[in-house]
Amino acid sequence: MAAAITVLLDGVASGMLLFVLSVGLSVTLGLMNVVNLAHGAFGMVGGYVCVVLLNRAGVPFLPSLAAATLAAAALGWLLERLLYVRIYGRDHLEQVLFSIGLVFVLGAVADFFMGARQQLIQLPDWLSGRVELAGIGLGRYRIFLILVCGAVAVGLHFGLVRTRFGARLRAAVDNGPVARGMGLPVGRIFSLTFALGSGLAGLGGALGVEVLGLDPNFPLKWLVYFLVVVAVGGANSVMGPFAAAILLGVLDVAGKYWVPEVGAFVIYTAMVVLLLARPDGLLARART
Amino acid sequence: MPITRRAALLSAAALPLARPALSQSGDPFKVGLIVPMTGPSASTGRQIDAAVKAWLRANPAPVAGRRIEVVLRDDTGTAPDVTRRLAQEMAVRERVRALAGFGLTPLALAAAPIATEAKLPMIVMAAGASVIPSRSPFIVRTSFTLPQATRPIATWAAANGIRTAATLVSDFAPGLDAERAFKEAFGAAGGRVSLELRSPLRNPDYAPFLQRVRDARPDALFIFVPSGEGSALIKQFNERGLREAGIRLIGTGDVLDDDLLNDMGDGVIGAVTSHHYSTAHDSPENAAFRDAFRAVAPDMRPNFMAVGGWDGMHLLAEALRRTNGDPDGTKLVDAMKGLAWTSPRGPMSIDPATRDVVQDVYIRRTERRDGQLWNIEFDRVQAVKDAA
Lengths: 288, 388
Hints:
The structure holds two protein chains of two kinds. By secondary structure, chain A is mainly α.
């Protein structure tokens, strides 16, 4: 029983991390209708910023996380203004080609400056090790992941539903021309949204160095997982991908624990089943 | 490559001119070095390239009247057909007299037919599958094979109070080799493998597997994962409290790659691994190797890949000396068979029957010395061959 709870919590932690990494993709894909396969590259950039600050500049872990988020957001904003803005109206094949090309470029840049090897970080003492509660052991870092990513999920959900920016964003997406006619700065709203999604990916990349690893292949290695989350969760809400990420994280970890022989396939089987059962996304009916 | 009439004429015209020129002494002996310098296995290529450059710098004198020249090509590590094409270009266009490098098994296998056809010695400096030298009579290996590195740790474990062990390997050919070799040798020595786990190569989250091991409570956990993944695995090993649960960590030395070891943190201290080379190996040959390597690549530590490159160059030069500068491939390979020398790794030789490497394998413990992490050798098994 204790083992089951440990596995469950591990799964939730890895699902939460997956959510932070992929939520930006569901926003750009679902809200802005851009197929941005380079999404993971912003995660990679965040990861590298975190590694460089921690290992070379001696910055503590939490400020490094914040800096990674900001750096990825800034890069996202810059690339959106310079490049992505040109492909908004294009067809999806062009968007795919462009964003995959961008992955290769950013991967090569990372390789040039940091080398192809896996990057390693040392967590501060208060995040390493594990705690035992009533016989249930859980790593401190996994608890930290659950708290941080949970806060991000809640913040995003209420940000989109309750704030003026959220309302404007939904308006801009639902009907761009009318929103523009009402005086909403649609371009700027999209830029900000894109930067936000990239920044979250950067945060996820930085948080993930310890769990997922980091090398120049990061964006491609994890792309499938991001896409699975978005596909299963449905591409234009926050809670859909959140539920999908948690579910997939738990199934992934549980599959590897109980049936290690086929563990790697559990997540794909789950995707197929879920897509057959709910082709519009997990929480499709909850949406209006 | 389409063969045009002009190309055919040109190469036919070039042949009689090139032949006499090559037999003249003083002509350079060209070696085609094919390694992954980019892509996921780039560190393999960079280590070997640096070691080869270091060897050339340390041995500038001509060998049997010939200067040794190295032509470097990057095969990116992921596409066997690229390796094959590069080997062909080296043989035909660059007119190299030997091929060398080969970072991964599929790449070496792809180039093997070219070596056979062109009758060129092919020095495998990295790839580790047992099958490789059987694929061409011109292949000679200076790296290591997985069973060679794995069996000694299994025997050592059984002799040192470890009765049951779990294995955790990456689910790809070398991982399965290591799993099989460990199981055989450990079983033969009286141990029992109680749990066998394979983690997918693409998704290195080891947490669930390690949790499973913790719940099974074996005496030790044997791991084999691609070099570079080792630290993530060992970190989670510690974070999950397997060490406190009394489970010892053992594995092959590539998991604790010397090039990365220093960044792995104190969690790796105490891990026991077996391998043919440690940067910390205490010998004058290794000191000279480390100095030469540092002069070329000051911010890298030479690892087991580098020593494979260094010894590959030594082997070629020694064979060339024995043939008095005759670059004929068959004669060179014959000269290599049975050759024995003291490498930076320790004593090694080329098995005359299989053309595979025979070497001492060391049992090492990871320790912190002078503020740095090292794999300190404390036991050795002499003259280990690939097969038992």
